[in-house]
Write a structure and sequence with these properties.
This protein has 75 residues and is mainly α. The protein is 97% helix and 0% strand. The chain contains 1 helix and no strands. The longest helix is centred in the middle third of the chain and has 73 residues.
Length: 75
């Protein structure tokens, strides 16, 4: 019976330790999920800015091309 009590006590301690580890891992997981979501939002914002800049560059390119064509006809 004494050995059973020792084994039970050891098992309960192990359960407590593992339960604590599970809680720590859940907390870390939640933190990482939050960081991932924030990173995804930032990535989306950057991609939208890049798209806006690309459209502006395309418009500038088109305007410069048209100015070049007009300049050719004026010569």
């Amino acid at each position: 019976i004494l050995n059973l009590r020792k084994s039970l006590y050891a098992a309960e301690k192990k359960i407590d330790k593992l339960s604590s580890e599970v809680e720590e891992l859940k907390t870390k997981h939640d933190s990482l999920d939050k960081i991932r979501a924030e990173g995804k939002q930032q990535f989306t914002a950057v991609m939208e800015r890049i798209s806006t800049i690309q459209k502006a560059v395309d418009e500038i390119h088109s305007a410069v091309h048209k100015i070049g064509e007009i300049a050719k006809t004026q010569l």
